[in-house]
Amino acid sequence: MQWPLVICLVYLGGRTAIRHAAFSFARAKLDNYIVRSISPMPLSLWQWWYVARLADGSKRTGVIDLLAGNSYEAAAYPPDSRSSLAAVARRTRLASGFLDVFPDAHVEASKDGEGHTVVTFRALSYSFMNEFKFTVMVYLNSSGKVAGRKAVF
């Protein structure tokens, strides 16, 4: 048997077991939350980043530390924007593809200085790296037509 294959199998098996332990810990510790995704923090298999949803539609992100037995909330997001302009932005190809990859993205609608409505789709799974990475913005004019798109990866 080849040693690199054995090492890879042991690593993947251990990582899968630790991921299941992190999910179990999250479900027990975060009882009011519905944990949507969980992923390891860079360079650590014992700290996991979670994205959770509450019953009111708001979302929380944070870190679960399996060695210390603690969880830390990093950010709270209000419920997603349900406006008709956000629905128009969701139907664009860029936003639709983004939501296929990141189904738990946070959706927020706001106005910019030029009078456009900016609908922002932000991936919370990677928000620990930088708040503005993995973001799609769709610009809508006053009549609800798409005026522009921007993606930040």
Layout of strands and helices, then pairs:
Layout: H1 3-29, E1 34-40, E2 47-53, E3 59-65, E4 70-77, H2 84-90, H3 93-101, E5 106-111, E6 117-122, E7 135-140, E8 146-152
Antiparallel strand pairs: 1-2, 2-3, 3-4, 5-6, 6-7, 7-8
Summarize the structure.
With 153 residues, the chain is of the alpha+beta class.
Helix content: 25-40%
Globally, the shape reads elongated
Sheet with most strands: 4 strands, antiparallel
Number of domains: 2
How many β-strand runs?
A: 8
The run of helices and strands is HEEEEHHEEEE
Average predicted local confidence, pLDDT: 90
Give the CA-CA distance, first to last residue: 41 Å
Q: What fraction of residues sit in β-strands?
A: 35-45%
From the alpha carbons, calculate the radius of gyration and give it in angstroms: 19 Å
| Main structural class | alpha+beta
List the strand order in the largest sheet. 1-2-3-4
Helix tally equals 3
* Low-pLDDT residue spans: none
If you had to describe this structure to a student in words, what would you say it looks like?
This protein is of the alpha+beta class and 153 residues long. The protein folds into two domains: 3-77; 84-152, no CATH class. Helices cover 28% and strands 35% of the residues. The protein contains three helices and eight strands. It has a four-stranded antiparallel beta sheet, covered by helices on one side. The longest helix has 27 residues, at 3-29. The model has no long low-confidence stretch (mean pLDDT 90).
Spell out the key features of this protein.
single chain; 2 domains; 153 residues; 4-stranded antiparallel β-sheet; alpha+beta
